[in-house]
Design goal:
The chain is mainly α. It has one domain (32-141): Up-down Bundle (Four Helix Bundle (Hemerythrin (Met), subunit A)). It is 79% helix and 0% strand. It is built from seven helices and no strands. The protein has helices at 2-23, 34-52, 54-62, 66-74, 80-90, 93-119, 122-141. The radius of gyration is 25 Å and the shape is elongated.
């Protein structure tokens, strides 16, 4: 009697195995290729240019030049969100979530600086400026330097 159920059991197991393998998600790569690193670094360099200009924002805040603060946030930093998203999309999944969180924190700090400029509150602008620099630097630190 057991002899008759063996082929049926083998068939059921084969179908189950095919289903499990067929439905599994493709695995994400665990390392970068040199080409991926070059692409990420290209976009990150553009972000680095914006990071280098953050001193201009700090100077405007220190001088309480609120018009310049507003202009700088909406002008040169206006493309920051798009550029950060380009870098984030190309990162490995293990870094992507952290990059998204850091970018969101950075944008929130810039929005707070903008609000502080509207109400001319230097202390709020200064504290958010400092935190925005920390977030920006932490985001850029996620950019791979070379193939692991």
């Amino acid at each position: 009697m057991l002899q008759r159920f063996r082929p049926i059991l083998a068939g059921v197991l084969a179908v189950l195995a095919a289903f499990v393998v067929g439905c599994s998600a493709p695995s994400e790569p665990m390392t970068y290729t040199q080409s991926q690193i070059e692409d990420i670094q290209l976009y990150a360099a553009r972000l680095g240019d914006l990071r280098d200009r953050m001193d201009e924002l700090g100077d405007a805040i220190d001088n309480e030049d609120w018009g310049e603060v507003d202009t700088f946030i909406h002008g040169p930093l206006g493309s920051l969100r798009e550029r950060a998203a380009r870098v984030t999309r190309q990162l490995l999944p293990s870094d992507r979530d952290r990059a998204e969180a850091l970018a969101e924190d950075l944008f929130e700090h810039l929005e707070e600086i903008d609000r502080a400029a509207d109400i001319e509150k230097a202390s709020l602008a200064v504290s958010n400026y400092r935190e925005s620099l920390q977030d920006f630097d932490a985001f850029l630190a996620l950019v791979p330097e070379s193939v692991d």
